[in-house]
Amino acid sequence: MRDEPDTDLALMKFGIGQPVPRSEDPKLLRGEGRYTDDVNLANQAYAVMVRSRHAHAILRGIDLAPARAMPGVLGIYTQADLEAGGFGPLKCPVAFPNRDGSPMKTPPRPALAKDKVRFVGEAVAVVVAETAAQAKDAAEAVMLDVGELPAVTDPAAALAPGAPQLHDAAPGNLVLDYHYGDADAVAAAFARATHVTRLEIVSNRVVVNAMEPRAAIGSYDPAGGRWTLHVGSQGVFGMRGSLAKDVLNVAPDRVHVLTGNVGGSFGMKAPVYPEYPCVLFAARALARPVKWTDERSESFVSDHHGRDHQRIAELALDADGHFLAVRLTGYGNAGAFIYPPLPATINAVKNVVDVYRTPVIEVNSKIAFTNTTPVAAYRGAGRPEGNYYMERLIDTAAHEMGIDRIELRRRNHIPPQAMPYKAPSGMLYDSGEFTSVLDKALAAADWTGFEARKADSRGRGKLRGRGVGSYLEVTAPPGKEMGGIRFEADGSVTMISGTLDYGQGHAAPFAQVLVEKLGIPFEKLRLIQGDSDELKAGGGTGGSRSMLVAGQAFVEASAQVVDRGRQIAAHLLEAAVADIEFDRGRFVIAGTDRGIGIMELARRLHAGAALPPDVPPSLDVAHVSDTPPSSFPNGCHVAEVEIDPETGAIDVVRYVMVNDFGTVINPLLVEGQAHGGVVQGIGQALMERTVFSEQGQPLAGSYMDYALPRAADAPAFTVQSHPVPARTNILGVKGCGEAGCAGALPSVMNAVIDALSERGIRHLDMPATPERVWRALQGR
């Protein structure tokens, strides 16, 4: 008699490839989520940051006396207090060498400004009071004595002679002079080219605007000398390591990081921010927990921004339109402090090649300090930009050479028979059918029927354009990831992973893998990611890698569970281990119907089944996986837009995407991720514009000034899949989290330029706002 549910039915509903709704959604929709601001600890106090109103100034003094005398104030702390308490600065964890081999400039960032403020919103002091309102009132009473300095916000201007200097350790404001490629080979390719296309192109700065503002609660246990931080993050294991090593100067086991639900991040919540050391310091100083929650107006200036690159992009082609070389030269804006400059450096290298045979490439990037909010990762972190540069170059080259833009793409595609393909970026593409994906997208978009739609638009006084955006992304590099499986006494099974869900919906697809591999009922599976005490390793979530690394870790852990289970089952069934087979959740003596289900086996172990010393005492596994190499999600997006020439307003009216994400674990969640990425891409392409005055003051500091896409700005999406399983990981997955942006930026902007081309406009930088489009149409 079988002692487990119908496994075949479970696989049909919950196995790999099934559209299973997100496990957490019912709880979140009932308002039962637990975000950082929902956490309240006994006797907690409240912190508010005192922030600079100047972009660049000498900090001559801070008058705390009036604020200290205000009701409810418990303490006010500056950088001098933190340093006296043994707290270290925030550090950049990744550095690249300059083209001459010298190290990148990485001046550490104090949690609170010490001698100088370098951007509007930089934290200068932290006020702690009995209530948040009291802390806010007192923070407004803190007086700063400053000597204002000239500011610079543009990276090219920051590197010019005589520009205001931000850091003594970075002369000329130069963070990094990055170079990749064989400059001589690229120059030779351009010299023999029949045609060279050159574009000055910008990837505009964006404010991340996660739905949930950042928040943190710090506490300290003097008996054990242990710190606890509740915080929204992208991975508690990495957050714990950075805090312990760089800030607190203690062993990692003396730091406990807890993350509950997270309302969006897109890269922004990954690093340690100045507020986190501040609440931890105050908690120890006051012997009580201290809570800080950001407000949206503060988020605009204190959360890391995204993008902000200026490029000259060049493509060399022969007489037949075959690509000979691509070269990127330009600037990246670091803001006032440096975080890993991946977007303008190695991620540009890896992703500009896209899906095309390009013999040689060169990337030159000068990263500069400016008096602006620091810039760090934002959905894709250089991957969408690399594809955007290439796709805009192709459309421009096709027009200049009189070659059909689709034909030019087909002519340069890397063919399937070339796999594995060694790209000039150093990446080894393992799989992909790029021409098939393009053709499928064109068919789904009714490419041949466009002229009739364009005529209809013209009849209504509108300009209509269509754009193609092919993309190939290189996901995050390999590392280590935990795949823990624990069978609980209540009959549930806990999955433990060092990734972290900040909106992706990890619980369902991770569970689907264990349903497939172990036959565990879907409803029995629970996921832990946000407790650093539970982890042995963890790379967090980023770079479209979660299923790639966690999936492999759980598959390997499942194999260990089966191995342990065979030994235990052999003892309980009185058989040799070699005779025990496992299939669909059941251990069976080969050639018989005698067996035991995995859940029943776990129940008997918890009930105290006697086992000899040479048999594993449980099915539990805490496995650490060496994760697989990067994968290469790819696809083709086709957008159509209508433009009102009287106002410059743009509507995205049709949108088709065909994606190759390899093995799709959960098509419902994958489609949702694609939708979200595309909408963010539409936002950057058409409306999101971060502007600073000459004095470094942000001029788009709220939703009154900064436009985000709404539901009305998104078309109905047509989503199709063309999966070509990856050959380099167990599940064949490729990653999907950032691909929407990578396809949206080029397809939307190519469509905009296509619509404007009948008026003689061949290039326009993002964001293509109504004002910018109208001015271009008016020749202004």
TrEMBL record:
Highest rank taxon of the organism: Bacteria
Alphabetized UniProt keyword annotations: Molybdenum, Oxidoreductase
Protein's name according to its UniProt entry: Xanthine dehydrogenase family protein
Taxonomic lineage from the root: Bacteria, Pseudomonadati, Pseudomonadota, Alphaproteobacteria, Hyphomicrobiales
Keyword Oxidoreductase: yes
GO MF assignments: iron ion binding; oxidoreductase activity
Pfam families to which the protein is assigned, alphabetical: Ald_Xan_dh_C, MoCoBD_1, MoCoBD_2
Domain Aldehyde oxidase/xanthine dehydrogenase a/b hammerhead residues, every copy: 30-150
